[in-house]
Amino acid sequence: MTGSLDAVLEEVDRELKGSNVESSTAVEVAAKAPSFANLTPSRTASGKSLDHLYAVRLDAEAVLGRADLSVEEMLNLGVGSVVELDRLVSDPVDLIVQNVRVARGEVVVVNDQFAIRITEITGSK
């Protein structure tokens, strides 16, 4: 089997020498810096108007609290089970938008639905 592989390699070497192709791995390549067109800002792309973003929908959720449960405790949950959260009744709930806390507030009822009255806006980090 190695005899046939050696024969193939010799044939390739002969073809490369016959076609005047260098057999070294170093090949010279001409390179030059790219040129780009000059970009000028347009009036609508100035960043001053956010009107185009007003229709974007974001996911928001209210977090009353959190609980640390084992798998066994999760499997034992059923109708009527009580899960104790890490916050007091008087503590504010978090308003989370796109996985970022943006505000805190208190739970209220509006037209028979839960809602949040914002009491604090979280500062940007």
What this model shows, in words?
The chain has 125 residues and is α+β, with helices and mostly antiparallel strands. It has a domain at 51-121: SpoA-like (Surface presentation of antigens (SPOA)). It is built from two helices and four strands; from the N terminus they run H-E-H-E-E-E. It has helices at 2-18, 71-75; strands at residues 60-63, 93-97, 100-110, 113-121. Strands 1-2-3-4 form a four-stranded antiparallel β-sheet, with no helix packed on it. The longest helix has 17 residues, at 2-18. It starts with a helix and ends with a strand. The model has no long low-confidence stretch (mean pLDDT 83).
Second CATH tier, the architecture of the domain at 51-121: Roll
The top level CATH class name of the domain at 51-121? Mainly Beta
Mean pLDDT: 83
In percent, how much strand structure appears in the residues?
A: 15-25%
Order of helices and strands: HEHEEE
Please state the structural category: alpha+beta
The CATH topology of the domain at 51-121 corresponds to Surface presentation of antigens (SPOA)
Portion in helices: 10-25%
Low-pLDDT windows of residues? none
Report how far the terminal alpha carbons are from each other. 68 Å
The CATH superfamily of the domain at 51-121 bears the name SpoA-like
Shape designation: elongated
List how many beta strands DSSP finds.
4
The profile of the biggest β sheet is: 4 strands, antiparallel
Main-sheet strand order equals 1-2-3-4
